[in-house]
Structure formats: C-alpha cells, structure tokens
Design a protein that fits this description.
The complex is a heterodimer of chains A (about 300) and B (about 260).
Chain A (H helix, E strand, L loop, with lengths): L1 E11 L2 E12 L3 E5 L6 H8 L7 E6 L8 H4 L2 E5 L10 H11 L5 H10 L13 H14 L4 E5 L7 H17 L3 E6 L2 H4 L5 E6 L2 E7 H6 L1 E7 H7 L4 E8 L2 E7 L4 H9 L3 E4 L2 H8 L14
Parallel strand pairs in A: 3-7, 3-8, 5-6, 6-7
Antiparallel strand pairs in A: 1-2, 1-4, 8-9, 10-12, 10-13, 11-12
Helix pairs in contact in A: 4-5, 5-6
Chain B lengths: L1 H38 L10 H19 L3 H7 L4 H34 L9 H9 L6 H14 L10 H28 L2 H25 L16 H23 L7
Classes of the chains: A alpha/beta (about 300), B mainly alpha (about 260).
Keywords (chain A): ATP-binding, Nucleotide-binding
GO molecular function (chain A): ATP binding; ATP hydrolysis activity
InterPro entries (chain A): AAA+_ATPase, ABC_transporter-like_ATP-bd, P-loop_NTPase
C-alpha cells in the first residue's frame, strides 16, 4: 500500500487544521503519528479514512483518490476513541457487522482477542467501561486485517496489562499478516519500540517524517563536567539542558560524527541517546519564557 | 461487481433492522386493536379495521425512523462503505418497507375480517376524506399550514381496500414513503449543517407535504380542501408526475447533503 499526500490542506471555517502537508508512506510498516493535542493528527487520519474531504491538495492511496472510493475504503479501517454512550448493540452483533463488511475479517482471531481482553460479548457496548470499549476497538482494528489499519489513540482508558496485550498482539499480527499500521499516540515512551517510521506534526504542519532509528540517532545527551560540556556543545543545536552542581547534561539535536563522538568520550563526557519522547517534547514545545522557539528545520 | 454487492448488502441490512422495529410497531397496534374490540364488546360495525389504524399511525412512525436513518451513515462509513452505497441501500430498504407495511396490514385486516365477519368493516373511513375537505376554515396562512399538516398526518389521502386493494396499498405506500423520505431529509440537513438550516428544511418538508397532498387528493378525485383548487384543472397524469417530482427533489436533496458530508466523530 502507498499513501501519498500533496499540499494537503484542511480548514474548519477560518481555522487551518492541516497546512499544506506533504509526505509519502508505503509498505507494510508500523508508522507512529505524533503530535500534540490539536496538532491535526485525527484530521489527517480522518481524511485518509474518507471520514471527511480535504479543503485543497490531494491524497492518493495506491494512486487513487480514497474519498468515496469503494475499493479503497473497504481496505482501510480507522478505529478511534469513539463515544459509545448510546450504542446499545452488543459486542457480538458489532463483530457480525465488521465481518459482513470487512473482506479480510478473521472471526476466530476476534474471538481470541475478546477472550484475551476478557470482554463480555453479550453486554451492550455502552455498558462497558471506557477501557473495555477501547479493547473492543483494538479487537475490531486488528481482526479486520485491513491493508491499512489506523489506530488513533485507541488505547485510551485501557489499563497497563491490556495495553501490554495490545502491543504484543500488534507485533505478532504484523509478523503473521503484515500490513500498514498507523498509530497515533501520546504514549510515546511506551510505544516507541513499535514504530518503524515516525511522522511528527505540529500545529497542522508536518515537522518531520523519518525512519525511527535515523531519528533517534539524531539526538544525543552529553553529560559531564559543566565547562567541558558547554565547550563541546557550543556549535550544536541544544534542545534541553539540566544542571546539578558541577555536572551538566545537554540534549542536542543533529547527528554526531564519529570523530565528535570519540572526542567527547576522550574528554570524559558521556554520550547517550535521546528517547523519542524527549525529542517529541522539545520539537513541539511552545515558545519559552524568553520568546525563543526551538526551530530545528 | 463489488460495488453492487455492497449496496445490496446495505439494503438487506437496513430492511431487516427496520422491519424488526416495524414488527414491534405493528404488534403494539394489533394489541391495541384487540383491546379496542374487547372493550367494544364485538358489536357489529363497532371497530375500525386494523388496516385503518396502521394507516393513520404509520405516518408518524415512518417520519421517526426516517429521522433515525441518518445515524446509520457514520456506522456504514466506519465499516468502509461509501456514502453512495449507504444512500442507495437505504433508499432500496425504504421502498421495501413502504410496500411491506401496507401488505402486512392488509393481510392482518383480511384475517380479522374472516374471523370476525361484519364486526370490522372498511365503511366509514371515507368520512376521513370528506372531513379533510371541510377542515380548512382558517383564512390566514398560518392557520392554513397548521390545519394542512395536522390533516396530512391524521387524515392522509385514503383509498379503502374495499374499493381497490391495489390502489389502497399504493396510496398507503406512497404516504409512508413520503414521510420517511422527509424525516431523512430533515435529519440529513441537521447532520450536515446547523439547527437553523435544519429548521428551514422542516419548513421545506411541510411545503412538500402539503403540495403532495393536494396533488394526490386531486388525482384520486378525493374531496379537496379549497386551497388546492388550482390543481383541479390539471389531468391526473400531470398531478402524479408532480408527486414523482417532489419525491425526486427530496431524494436529490438527501443525496447532495450526504454525498461528501464529514462523519461526526
């Protein structure tokens, strides 16, 4: 599968939700879509899933416009934290509908997941807890086996053991039936090991789209004696710094060359990778008290 | 090929789910009918037939399920069905529903007649039509509209099954078809736009309803309230064409409102 966006623009009245987004993703990979609240993640995903039409620009899936395209729409499943407060259908019946309209739906696997999440199939969905409703969404999302599976903060309300089941099942599914997964999340530290590639959007704009390993290798934390650290990072982009007594730790963005890395080690500094969560926080942070903004691109 | 399969699936599902509601509706009316007959002491000519009870109540019922039908749109799009397939499927299910309800009603009524003989007869519903013609005593426009709507709901154009059961079913079908369609149109306008637009489309629906009533009554040679006299010079074929055009207008509006509507999340 191939998803390509070109100058994608979405406006709600005067508010620009997506501002000329360009990217292309393809292959059976797990994509992490990151962004702060209101960044435009759900807007972007809802256009992919034909829930809404863009204001301008284009999106193509396997070279075709997905909107109202029967062949494309049946291949995309979009699960999100849905309000089920008025849904009186039982899980059993909802599974039947998914099976009826999703060509690759695996009923046995859905039943297996229902068992793992310990869901009561005869209860109306509105009577389930938020976490259980989310587990049901995960079940539909995984068991539909749609070539493009979009899970938008689908874990909301799920407890840690359930989320663990979700992550494990996701990886196993990807091994058994590889497909394009797009996971939008705030739980970056918990889910980063799942991602093959990362797309970061901020205030409706695409900030970066990189391979996960390349992205995390772009950051480094340099820790050591304050003066040596200050000297070492002078020409680097610093995204965060912390100090405790004479020891300073500075997070830098931009790849370190082998020479620089060896130089740092020779000077007694410690070089460690930056977790994706920290990169995410610093890349999307608002203007600070001094009015300076982390502008990296 | 694949497309055809999807909308026919939607049609079958919509028909089944709405028929399951309809059996409750028809069942409750049947219970009421039996209670009425027991209270009436099974006297000759004591009770209106079941067909007539359904005939009156089905309009409001269809309006309500028409309003609800828009809430199947997000459900289908979430399941990967296009808005077009939703529209086609729902429209086909509506056609099925509009025929099924009168047919079931007439079957039960016939059975009622066979069991109870003369106790239940189709006699005095003709009064409905003549009463309808006398209702418009209000001279101002608001009074005209209100009396027109009330009359349309409780005294719709009526053909007795005794005179022609095919025509009776056809008129009944057309009445309930129209109410569902207008309910669907109103809910589509609320779904896509805002309350103001929704209210405007309630007004638009009332106009369609009143014009359709006039066209249908005149074409069937039923007693017609004075406001519809302008239709009297027209031949029946033109009047029925007018009814068809009104249906097309409502259907086109629904399709236009839903064809690229954003799904509420």
């Amino acid at each position: 599968m191939n998803v390509s966006c070109s100058e994608l623009l979405l406006k709600y009245g005067n508010h620009i939700a997506l501002d000329h987004i360009n990217f292309e993703i393809q292959g059976e990979k797990i994509y992490g879509l990151l962004g702060r609240n209101g960044a435009g993640k759900t807007s972007l995903l809802s256009i992919m899933a034909s829930f809404r039409k863009q204001t301008a620009g284009s999106i193509t899936i396997n070279g075709e416009d997905p909107f109202e395209n029967s062949n494309i729409m049946e291949q995309i499943v979009f699960m999100y934290s849905k309000n089920y407060s008025e849904e009186s259908e039982t899980i059993q019946n909802m599974l039947k509908s998914a099976q009826r309209y999703r060509p690759n739906f695996d009923k046995d696997y859905a039943e297996y997941l229902i068992g793992r999440f310990q869901l009561d199939v005869k209860k109306p969905i509105k009577k389930l807890s938020k976490g259980m409703q989310s587990a049901f969404n995960v079940t539909i999302g995984l068991a539909s086996r749609a070539p493009i599976t979009i899970l938008d903060e689908v874990y909301l309300g799920m407890d840690a053991p359930s989320r663990d089941i979700f992550y494990k099942e996701l990886l196993q599914e990807q091994e058994r039936h590889p497909r394009m997964f797009i996971l939008s999340t705030h739980l970056v530290s918990e889910m980063e090991y799942l991602f093959d590639e990362v797309i970061l959007i901020n205030k409706g704009k695409l900030l970066l789209h990189e391979d996960f390993d390349t992205l995390v290798s772009k950051g480094a934390t340099i820790t050591g004696d304050k003066e040596i650290v200050d000297d070492f990072v002078r020409s680097k982009k610093c995204i965060n710094e912390q100090q405790l007594g004479g020891t300073k730790s500075v997070m830098i963005f931009g790849e370190l060359t082998e020479v620089e890395r060896n130089d740092a080690i020779d000077r007694g500094l410690e070089v460690t990778p930056v977790p994706l969560q920290d990169l995410f926080i610093h890349l999307t942070k608002e203007e600070d008290a001094n009015g300076t903004k982390s502008r990296l691109f | 090929m694949a497309r055809k399969a999807v909308y026919s699936k939607v049609a079958a599902d919509m028909f089944i789910v709405q028929m399951s509601w309809t059996f409750w509706f028809l069942g409750i009316l049947l219970a009421v009918q039996i209670i009425k007959m027991v209270i009436g002491g099974f006297q000759e000519n004591g009770t209106d037939p079941y067909f007539n009870s359904v005939f009156i109540a089905a309009n409001v019922y269809m309006l309500i399920i028409g309003i609800i039908s828009i809430y199947f749109l997000p459900y289908y799009v979430e399941n990967g069905v296009t808005r077009k397939d939703y529209f086609k499927g729902t429209f086909l299910a509506l056609c099925g529903l509009s025929v099924a309800i009168p047919v079931i009603a007439i079957c039960i009524s016939t059975l009622e007649n066979l069991i109870l003989g003369n106790i239940v007869q189709f006699r005095d519903m003709d009064i409905v039509n003549s009463v309808a013609a006398k209702i418009d005593i209000n001279s101002n426009i608001i009074g005209e509209v209100i009396s027109g709507v009330v009359q349309s709901v409780i005294l719709p154009p009526y053909i007795s099954p005794e005179s022609s059961w095919i025509l009776a079913i056809a008129v009944f079908s057309l009445n309930i078809f129209m109410y569902y369609l207008l309910g669907w149109m109103i809910s589509a306008s609320f779904y896509r736009y805002n309350v103001i637009t929704g209210l405007l489309f309630i007004g638009f629906s009332i106009i369609i309803l009143l014009v359709r009533d006039g066209l249908l009554r005149t074409s069937l040679n039923l007693p017609v309230p004075s406001r519809y006299y302008i239709f009297e010079s027209l031949p029946a074929s033109i009047l029925l064409l007018g009814v068809a055009i009104l249906i097309v207008i409502a259907a086109v509006v629904i399709r236009q409102f839903t064809k690229d509507v954003a799904i509420k999340m």
